[in-house]
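Problem 3 from the worked examples.
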Amino acid sequence: MKNLKIYLFRHGQTYYNKNKFFTGWKDSNLTPLGKKQAKIIARKLKDKKIDVAFQTNLSRSKDTLKEVLKSHPECKEIITANRMIERNYGFLEGKSHRTIIKKYGAKQYQKWHRGWNNPPKDGESFKMVEKRVKIFIKNLINFMKKNKVNVAISSHGNSMRLFRKLMEKATIKETCSWNIPYDKYFEYTIKIK
């Protein structure tokens, strides 16, 4: 029996995060604090073995991963995996939380922001994101077992939320209530023969 590891972490804070805007698939750069948070993750993962790393095509995922990989010369491959991209917020993207609350009310804002199956127009719900993350996990585990590798995943708050739900067998209520930190990683073990 061999234990393979998954190291899952969120990108550092972006300007959209800081200013409380719905980011989704829009690109937003890391703030100075976000760059510090990326360094914190890098420090925490410094002594771990990372063979393959996954990122999305958004700069915040790539920039955070770049910081982490500075101390991992053993990582020989970076794969862009958009099944782990942030939740698509549809028409909400680029709008401030305050503006949405003012226009639609706090109750509707909460349904869109933290509701399980309430996709905003042209966007995704947590339930929809879970479907693509589930496929990613299945493919990831097969990849890890076949190649016998440890992996790091530079992800986003909402796709991480669903990754954690599936890996930790959490309830919908728990999943919707989680605050996903910028400076912490989650570790999962995959056993192979």
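Problem 4, a separate protein:
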Amino acid sequence: MKAIVQDRYGDSSVLHLADVPVPAIGDNDVLIDVRATSLNIGDVHLMTGLPLIVRPFIGWRGPRQKIRGMDVAGLVHSVGAGVTAFAPGDEVFGVVSAGLAEFARASVKKIAPKPPSLSFEQASAIPTSAATALHALRDAGRLQPGQRVLIIGASGGVGIFATQLAHAFGAHVTGVCSTAKLDLVRSLGADEVIDYTTTDFALSGERYNLIVDMVSSHSVPALRRALSADGTLVIVGGERGSRLLGGLSRAMFAPLRGIGSKQRLRGLVSVTSAGDLATLAKFVEADKLVPVIGETAVLGETPGAAGRLLSGHAVGKVVITPTVLAE
């Protein structure tokens, strides 16, 4: 089968199209005939091997898993001996470890039936990003109806889902984004939008019950000044920081800054489960969650698409379909 492979760390130029074996599946796995794969910032971290703290887990000199791609949608091709929940031909979506390929192996704990109303491209855009947003709001943030929530990075991969889910939870939603994306964020359900190129929310005097930060453009003390006295700050990743820790340092050390305060400071570690996917599918079918796809490319065009994601110029999700360009 064809797949996008990398043998070393670096920018998107390390990605290349190659022929690789179709993966074998275990008793509790399914083999997915991939129809679409979306790119995540996590794919970029695995591509670059940064921050360095992740390398003991993914490979020090080069990636142990050489095929990128986390989120897929497609058809079940075959199932393991212990699988009863799925059968060949079922439409599914979920998380894998090697999705930029024509076939991918998935654990039954990481996939769910695809929402019938979505295309494969749309469904592939949901799993990791939307589950991260769900965990930030529902679990770490404990968001309640009527609360005021600030979404920093509201037009990004996680932010587009966080904005919609916060609206669905009945919160008053303020989204922070650039000028060009204000209308998009409004369309996602934001009650207010802040253009960060002209306005600094931290100096506005407004206070929020929950702040979800995907950008790391403000210091933690500045974010705390925008929190209510008993509010919650949830730090989701962030692309700034040292080569060693990157944005993880803010998430790791934020809880220490909240000791002795009624404010809750939390770093988020998100792992997507089949249950999360089923919950997200219900929001989709209730017309409360819609993927935003900014770019679609075919498998052979992945390096260019990944480069645009790395540059920060992508709007919404970037989706790759398995049709292969002539080499």
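Solution to problem 4. The first strand starts at residue 2 and ends at 5. The chain has two domains: 2-126+291-321, 129-267.
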